[in-house]
Each structure stands twice: as structure tokens, then as C-alpha cells.
Write a structure and sequence with these properties.
mainly beta
Length: about 120
């Protein structure tokens, strides 16, 4: 069992930065595929970023819409995954969810096993 708690959301102006945190309990994240997803009002939940340990280090994957602006990282000592969001745009406004999959890298939300409750990110123009 994995429990996930997101934090760090808020209301910011376009161009600002936020760092979201996903604190996990129940299992360590080092052996898990951890992803960030977001869901805007009336929209489907979409993939944002993922991080997984492969070989001697971690590898990351980003949606094209956030590539170059967002960075996913992990602090194993704190069992926490972060999403650093820079150059925020109004279209980034959504509820952001942290999710984990026990095995395997995936960008498909239906293939993730555990989800947090989400944190609201609102970017004003």
C-alpha cells in the first residue's frame, strides 16, 4: 500500500514558478515509477512527467507541453518526489496529481496503482 500526499499548489501569475511535492508512505519510491498528472475542468486527466530508476540512475519523461519548463526529481532520503514548474502559463491551470506504479515505466494514468488527492495550481494571465 502506498499513500501519497501532494502539496505546493497555489495561485500565481503567468511566468511564475511553483514546486509541487509528493510525500509517500507505505513504500519507498526508489523502486517505483512515480508520475505527475493533471486534470483541468472538463478535461481528461493527462500525463505531465514521470521518473523511474533504471540501471545506475533515474530516467525522466515529460509531456511535450511541459518539456523545458517542468522538472521532476526525487529525494530518496525524504521519500518525496517533486515537480518544479517554471514559466507557468494559464493553460497549466489544473489539479495536479501524484501517482505511482509498482513496476514499469508508463505514461498512461489507467496503469498507475496509487493516487494522491491532488493539489490545485491556478495560473492567472
Amino acid at each position: 500500500q502506498v499513500q501519497l500526499v501532494e502539496s505546493g499548489g497555489g495561485l500565481v501569475q503567468a511566468g511564475a514558478s511553483l514546486r509541487l511535492s509528493c510525500a509517500a508512505s507505505g513504500r519507498t519510491l526508489s523502486n517505483l515509477n512515480t508520475g505527475w498528472f493533471r486534470q483541468a475542468p472538463g478535461q481528461e486527466r493527462e500525463f505531465v512527467a514521470a521518473i523511474v530508476w533504471i540501471g545506475s540512475g533515474s530516467t525522466t519523461y515529460y509531456a511535450d507541453s511541459v518539456k523545458g519548463r517542468f522538472t521532476i526529481s526525487r529525494d530518496n532520503a525524504k521519500n518525496t518526489v517533486y515537480l518544479q514548474m517554471n514559466s507557468l502559463k494559464p493553460e497549466d491551470t489544473a489539479v495536479y496529481y501524484c501517482a505511482v506504479r509498482i513496476r514499469g515505466l508508463t505514461t498512461k494514468p489507467g496503469e498507475y496503482d496509487y493516487w494522491g488527492q491532488g493539489t490545485q495550481v491556478t495560473v492567472s494571465s
